[in-house]
Each structure stands twice: as structure tokens, then as C-alpha cells.
Amino acid sequence: MTPRPLNPRKAWIIGYRMSYEDWCQWSPTLPIPEACRPPPTEDVNVKRRNTFYWQYYTEWKNKLTRADQKKLPKVRYERVDDTILSAFIPFRWFEYTSQEDADPNDSDYDASVFQERETDVAQLQNLLKFLEEQGAPVDKYKISFGCMVDIHPRDDWRAH
Question: Where on the tree of life does the source sit, at the highest rank (predicted)?
Fold first, then answer.
């Protein structure tokens, strides 16, 4: 019998991460009008400074056509408490039931779920190509494959 998912629903999110430092360097390169650019300032609380980098991304994404917006995965921040570790680019997910889902000693463990697939690589290549065409190329060596536990994609209002 499969245990019920935890409430609130969570999921294993599988995709690629970019370090927060690299995200902060890359997001201001997005082509958005000057009027939409938040002013960089040192006066802002360090814990709130991430909103500027998020705003660069959302302003840029919002200026795209609906068709182009649909090509983009819903990026989210990977956090530990109040510390942002990375920007996470999800490509697939599955229901989270417990941390044992990722335990190789568990009888239900399936290593292939947590491994990089050809479809993941293809989706990443398409995204990198799209970003380059938009004038905001990303160095593929600054992105790494991984997974995280977060709010279920169907329930997450924070992802953009």
C-alpha cells in the first residue's frame, strides 16, 4: 500500500540548479527595459536582496509572448531556512512520500528516477538555446543536475 503524500503536498523536483551567486550575476543580463530594472542598492536587507534578482527574471518573462512563456520551466529558489542556495530549474517531478524515497537501501528505491536522463539533457539544451536567442546566454558549466524536495508543482504559487 502506498502511503498518502504529506500535507501540504510535496514532490521530488528533478532538474538543474544554478548557484545563487551565478543567478545573481546572470539575471541582470536579461534584456528588459531600463524602466523595469530595479535599482541595485546596498541599503536593502540582505535577506530581501534576492527579490531584485527574481524581479529581473519575472519582468523579462512577462514581456515574452505566451507561447514563449510556456517554453520556460517554473524556476524556484532552493532554500535551507532563510538561506538561498540556488535557482532550481525543474523538468520533472514525482510525489514525495518520505525521505526514504531516495534511500538506496529501501526496497522500493528506483535509482533511475534520480539519474539524469536524455530527455533532461535535451530539455536543458533547448532552454539554453532559447535563452541565448533571447540575448541572455547561460554558461552550461554553471548548471548542474540534481533534485530537491519542495512544494508540489501543482500547488506552488511561488514558482515563476
Answer: Eukaryota
Contacts 24+ apart (CB under 8 A), 117-126: 119/91, 119/92, 120/14, 120/15, 120/16, 120/91, 120/92, 120/145, 123/73, 123/91, 124/16, 124/89, 124/91, 126/71
pTM of the model: 0.80
pLDDT at 1: 43
Say yes or no to pLDDT of 128 above 50. Answer: yes
Q: What is the per-residue pLDDT for 2?
A: 46
* Domain range list for the chain: 10-151
Long-range contact list for 112-120, CB < 8 A, 24+ apart? 113/12, 113/14, 114/12, 114/14, 114/147, 116/145, 119/91, 119/92, 120/14, 120/15, 120/16, 120/91, 120/92, 120/145
